[in-house]
């Protein structure tokens, strides 16, 4: 079995694979202060609750954009799963040609998503990952990672407006009942939803104009389904894209 961890700034996504089949998946908050033992105990408890045996884990693969957590996760793997963790490094061989100025600057999760998108959908393709940031990652028809576009995520925008205004409340991100709000909360929800949708579709439209209309647009991340419902260009939702990419990279290394 393979334990796959995608460590983001806000959330930690955990997947367990039995060969190519995803048999368990959890999404937790990223806690920056957790020790190796706290990670190990947490993961063992999740395995126990889902009826899976940690002794069957023979691989741990991690994509992380939170460097301070890497040492504790690296120490956790051999202590609780009896194997060394593989950290995805975009500069190393992932099966894609990385055609950016400095491959070491690219977030591991972005390359992992690109690997999965090219394997599952071919190219050219664009992954729209809706997390703390909104990432657009572009893969060519030849399997080249071309770079992308990064902008602030919806959660950051909501938190920023709340922190900088005296009378505007914090609101949940949801699709509003109608465009024109008739109270403050409805106005905010409409603005955040249609503002995010307009920004995402605006970037997608320009990417399609450059890459061609046959380009696949794949959404992943916590808000993927909500955005895809209203998007003109994003119709494919793949909730487990990052975990699938981690498995593919691990399998590639094992075969090598």
How would you describe what is shown here?
The protein has two domains: 2-87, ATPase, nucleotide binding domain (Nucleotidyltransferase, domain 5); 97-245, ATPase, nucleotide binding domain (Nucleotidyltransferase, domain 5, 2-Layer Sandwich). It has seven helices and eleven strands. The protein has helices at residues 36-50, 70-81, 108-121, 154-164, 184-211, 224-230, 241-255, and strands at residues 2-7, 11-18, 21-29, 59-64, 85-87, 97-98, 125-130, 133-139, 144-152, 216-221, 236-237. Strand 1 (2-7) and strand 2 (11-18) form a beta hairpin. The longest helix is centred in the last third of the chain and has 28 residues, at 184-211. The mean pLDDT is 93.
């Amino acid at each position: 079995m393979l334990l796959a961890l995608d460590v983001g700034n806000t959330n930690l996504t955990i997947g367990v694979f039995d060969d190519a089949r995803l048999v368990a998946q959890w999404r937790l908050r990223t806690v920056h202060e957790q020790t190796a033992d706290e990670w190990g105990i947490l993961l063992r408890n999740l395995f126990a609750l889902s009826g899976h045996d940690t002794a069957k884990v023979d691989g741990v693969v991690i994509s992380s954009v939170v460097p301070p957590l890497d040492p504790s996760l690296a120490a956790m793997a051999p202590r609780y799963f009896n194997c060394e963790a593989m950290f995805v490094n975009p500069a190393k061989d992932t099966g894609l040609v990385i055609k950016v100025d400095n491959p070491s600057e690219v977030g591991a999760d972005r390359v992992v998503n690109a690997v999965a998108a090219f394997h599952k959908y071919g190219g050219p393709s664009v992954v729209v990952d809706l997390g703390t940031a909104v990432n657009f990652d572009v893969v060519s028809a030849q399997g080249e990672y071309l770079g992308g576009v990064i902008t602030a995520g919806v959660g950051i925008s909501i938190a920023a407006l709340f922190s900088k205004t005296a009378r505007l409340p914090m609101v949940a991100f949801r699709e509003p009942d109608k465009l024109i709000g008739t109270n403050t909360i409805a106005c905010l929800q409409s603005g955040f939803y249609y503002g995010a949708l307009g920004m995402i579709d605006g970037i997608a439209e320009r990417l399609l104009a450059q890459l061609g209309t046959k380009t696949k647009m794949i959404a992943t991340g916590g808000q993927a389904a909500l955005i895809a419902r209203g998007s003109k260009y994003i119709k494919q939702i793949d909730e487990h894209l990052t975990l699938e990419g981690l498995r593919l990279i691990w399998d590639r290394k094992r075969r090598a």
